[in-house]
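pasting for the record
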Amino acid sequence: QVQLVESGGGLVQAGGSLRLSCTASGTIFTINAMGWYRQAPGKQREWVARISSTNSTNYADSVKGRFTITRDNAKNTVYLQMNALKPEDTAVYYCFVNYWGGQAMGVQNYWGQGTQVTVSS
């Protein structure tokens, strides 16, 4: 059983900042990667950022230079620092974890329930 707890969403004005966090718990032997997707109303889910077990990071073009993803391995937590927010960033943000669940489960993916980010103009 795996749990993801997300927090940090809210309402901010354009140009403001938010910091999202996501903590994984449960039967996790090792985390390969964690990251974030988002989904705006009427649009398909969009990949935002990822951080690997080697701390290699990747970002969607739409957030490069504005968002920073970091990781705390001791806490099984991933963060997304979002600066210079735009109304286009408004979406539900979903945390994901890619992990090895041991010999019985192998590599698995798990998703959080999402946290709302709203950016007003």
